[in-house]
Specification:
mainly beta, two-stranded parallel ribbon, 4 helices, 15 strands, binds zinc ion, CA_dom_sf, zinc ion binding, lyase
């Protein structure tokens, strides 16, 4: 594999294990969800997020996704409850999408792929640093939200309008006063399982909370996301239109539902 991982034929998901052996581990993400096999776990509590809009700092294009970064130096924007046994701090959120509206999500539900998937990444503050949390099975909690095509989502536009400032790889711009809970669907029902980051190094440290209800964005909003480039300003332009990892083997893991 090339020195840098990516999503192309020569450095894509099938090659990641060459530099990151855990990518072939027993707890990899994403996975396919088959709802008829998923049991309701009555012990799963509701979850809640209390985010401080002032903790949003910057938005960046790293050539693989657009990411919004938060101040996580203290308990400021927090995720609690659900399957979590401690409070988790919001560190960043980012998206995965495809080249057209009919695919792009990483997880799938009963064979359905959504147009995109939003990942809100939080770390268990009992581990003192994000780096230490990555080494723990309950170190990180990711809230995953599916995006489907329909009417425009006004709150999503706040994010999309900032993309003009980060068209190419390596660009970063201030992005403040944003509470990402404005992107949550109305229903808080979720599926949960133990898995990994879906990008290298694919650490197996994640408690997933996948929200059952997708949010709706417009075709035009998805097109705006695809207007980013994975290339730097001084390079030939390469559109950033495919940044999802395909489903990984479940290997006996159990997915639980918070709802009947
Ligand atoms: Zn992700």
């Amino acid at each position: 594999m090339a020195k840098e991982w990516g999503y192309a034929d020569h450095n894509g998901p099938d090659h990641w294990h060459e530099l990151y052996p855990i990518a072939k581990g027993d707890n990899q993400s994403p996975i396919e969800l088959h709802t008829k096999d998923i049991k309701h776990d009555p012990s799963l509590k509701p979850w809640s997020a209390s985010y401080d809009p002032g903790s949003a700092k910057t938005i960046l294009n790293n050539g693989k996704t657009c990411r919004v970064v938060f101040d996580d130096t203290y308990d400021r924007s927090m995720l609690r409850g659900g399957p979590l046994t401690a409070p988790y701090r919001l560190r960043q959120f980012h998206l995965h999408w495809g080249s057209s509206d009919d695919h792009g999500s990483e997880h799938s539900v009963d064979g359905v792929k959504y147009a995109a998937e939003l990942h809100l990444v939080h770390w268990n503050s009992k581990y003192n640093s994000f780096g230490s949390a990555l080494k723990q099975p309950d170190g990180v909690a990711v809230v995953g939200i599916f995006l489907k095509i329909g009417h425009e989502k006004h709150e999503f536009q706040l994010l999309l309008d900032a993309l003009d400032k980060i068209k190419t790889k390596g660009k970063e711009a201030p992005f403040s006063n944003f509470d990402p809970s404005c992107l949550f669907p109305a229903c808080r029902d979720y599926w949960t399982y133990h898995g990994s980051f879906t990008t290298p190094p694919c650490e197996e440290c994640i408690v997933w909370l996948l929200l059952k209800e997708p949010i709706t964005v417009s075709h035009e909003q998805m097109a705006k996301l695809r207007s980013l480039y994975s290339s730097a300003e001084n390079e030939p332009p390469v559109p950033l239109v495919r940044n999802w990892r395909p489903p990984q083997p479940v290997k006996g893991r159990v997915v639980k539902a918070s709802f009947k």
